[in-house]
Amino acid sequence: MKTTLKFGVVSGFLVIGAFFLFSKSAEANVAAGETATSPRSLYVSNCARCHGSDGKSQTAQGKKLDADNISGGGVSTAKAVRIITSGKGKMPGFGRKLTPAQIRSIAAYIKSL
Ligand code: HEC
């Protein structure tokens, strides 16, 4: 009887401990996923070398390639999705590198530049 009780208490703690461990790591994963794929970080890592973090395309490479100023929200989201996916002139397409969902979130993000 005593042993059964002890066993019950110990395994109860184990279950609770495992639950806490699991829920903590699940939270950490979500947080890491959000920062790695946030629209802003996607823009910065894929677009800013030419278009600058402000979209005005005043980086050395942006000037050299005569990249368009994409700040001011003048490009429609549908057009941006098309251009990001397939590229335009000297701008490379990102259809193979990024998922459609990532491309849509960047297209929406540049409206705020
Ligand atoms: C290697 C440099 C380079 C990179 C990287 C780049 N672009 Fe471009 N982008 C250009 C150039 C150059 C043009 C002008 C193309 C043309 O008109 O011939 C352009 C044009 C555009 C346009 C069209 C603007 C308009 O008014 O028609 C959009 C929108 C755009 N880029 C968004 C992006 C986004 C979003 C990313 C990141 C996913 C990106 N670009 C990455 C060089 C780049």
General description of the model:
The protein has helices spanning 2-36, 39-46, 48-51, 60-64, 77-86, 100-110. The radius of gyration is 24 Å and the shape is elongated. By secondary structure, it is mostly helical. The protein folds into two domains: 1-36; 39-113, Cytochrome c-like domain (Cytochrome Bc1 Complex, Chain D, domain 2), CATH 1.10.760.10. Helix 2 crosses helix 6 and helix 5 (77-86) packs across helix 6. Helix content is 65%, strand content 0%. Residues 23-35 have low confidence and may be disordered. The chain starts with a helix and ends with a helix. Bound molecules: heme C. The site of heme C has 23 residues, from helix 3, helix 5 and helix 6.
In short:
This protein is an all-alpha fold.
Write the layout of secondary structure elements.
Blueprint: H1 2-36, H2 39-46, H3 48-51, H4 60-64, H5 77-86, H6 100-110
Helix pairs in contact: 2-6, 5-6
This protein binds heme C.
Heme C (HEC) is lined by residues 46-47, 49-51, 61, 65-68, 70, 75, 80, 83-84, 88-92, 94, 106, 110.
